[in-house]
Amino acid sequence: MHEIVLQIPHNKCILWKISTLFISPFTTCVLLWCYLEHIFLMTQELRLDPLAGYHAAELLQRFMVKHLTDLLTTSTPQGAAAVLPTSYEDAIFDKLKEKFPLIIFSCVQIASKVYLHSNIIDNNTAVHFLHSVGHRVSKQTLLETELMILKGLEFRINAPNPLTYVEILLEVLGHNEPSIPVEELCDLCRHVLRFVSLQKAAIYDALLKTTTQCVSPSREQRERFVTVTEDYMLLGVGVITVAAFIVLDELSHITGISRRSIGDFVHVTLMHIVNTNSPLTST
Length: 283
Prior knowledge:
Largest sheet: none
Number of helices: 14
Number of strands: 0
Oligomer: single chain
CATH class of the largest domain: Mainly Alpha
Strand content: under 5%
Helix content: over 70%
Distance between the termini: 62 Å
Number of domains: 2
């Protein structure tokens, strides 16, 4: 069994950033994905479809943003601030620290029930798994946590996820051009998507700086960029293209032909394919 340690970071500033959408939406969109590695390990250990893992990550992000926003915008109990300015926030953090591992797991459990072709995690399996990683919880606690998440999401659990977009795009690609080895490309795309997801903060931050041509993008630029981080169609296309470039690198390595030479040949050929005036395409 892979070692799975479900812990909340000691730096609670991360949690406050997640909840405060009005402070930095860009930060909000990428911070929760730092827990994706835990989700990947759980789905692998529980033999779930990778789709369930990405779906669980979406549920976790949506729920935690709403849950923390609700907690931190609730009026501070009378007298709490008089004792210690941060006592109320500390109390929320301590309470969340205890629940967070179970919240992550419950999102995985809910996601497993969405896909009929995937293994469904029943409560017996859930309790056994959590015990094996050092979390002793009852079935009642599991049910209460699951219900809390479902209510927080208003029972809207059919959230889109990036892997679905990648697979749909590949299906369309294979339908339009049957000669493309979609199955082989799909396996490579899954590896690329996993890497992009685990490195999402760094990749999207670099993309933001590239598109704005600014080393230190302003708050307004980051807020406008949120739509890019949420564009799974763009992510899907990007992942498939990266996978194709990896194939290009492998061909270059096998043949000894430089990437530039291959790229030039591809570029000229594509120009002739898309140019309706080309002798190759004219009738």
